[in-house]
């Protein structure tokens, strides 16, 4: 169980150093939510991994901690009350979760679900510009 203090701290890190986005594979109509934090030193990414799961990648200029899919949705739900700058992006991730829940396991997306996913992807992409 993550403390309220750690949720607020995480929200601050993501507001300041994070990225909330959706990767979109148009060929397979596959959409995956993700939250990244890119930092020069590994201390905070390691803490985030310990606290929220996910994984860490070593890159030329530092470290990237990432959660995707279910972990990113859980994270966004938990820290939303504490977010300031990226609250709208987190809400889009949670809206995408509701769209995904409409699809039955093992079935392909309907055209309506594909369109809604694409709209959310486009909306979130526009928030990064």
Global outline: globular
Approximately how much beta-strand content do the residues carry?
15-25%
How many structural units, i.e. domains? 1
Unreliable sequence segments: none
Can you name the CATH architecture? Roll
Order of helices and strands: HEEHEEHHH
Number of helices: 5
Mean pLDDT: 93
Descriptive overview:
The chain has 129 residues and is of the alpha+beta class. The protein has a single domain, classed as Homing endonucleases (Endonuclease I-creI), CATH 3.10.28. The chain has a 4-stranded antiparallel sheet with strand order 1-2-4-3. α4 packs antiparallel against α5.
Overview features:
Endonuclease I-creI; 129 residues; globular; 23% strand; 4 strands; 5 helices
């Amino acid at each position: 169980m993550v403390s309220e203090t750690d949720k607020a701290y995480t929200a601050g890190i993501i507001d300041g150093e994070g990225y909330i986005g959706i990767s979109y594979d148009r060929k397979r109509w596959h959409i995956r939510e993700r939250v990244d934090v890119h930092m020069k030193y590994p201390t905070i990414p390691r803490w985030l991994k310990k606290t929220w799961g996910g994984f860490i990648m070593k890159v030329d200029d530092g470290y990237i901690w990432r959660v995707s899919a279910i972990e990113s949705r859980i994270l966004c739900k938990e820290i939303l009350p504490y977010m300031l700058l990226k609250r709208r992006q987190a809400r889009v991730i949670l809206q995408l979760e509701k769209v995904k829940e409409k699809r039955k396991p093992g079935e392909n997306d309907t055209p309506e679900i594909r369109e809604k996913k694409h709209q959310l992807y486009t909306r979130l992409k526009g928030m990064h510009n």
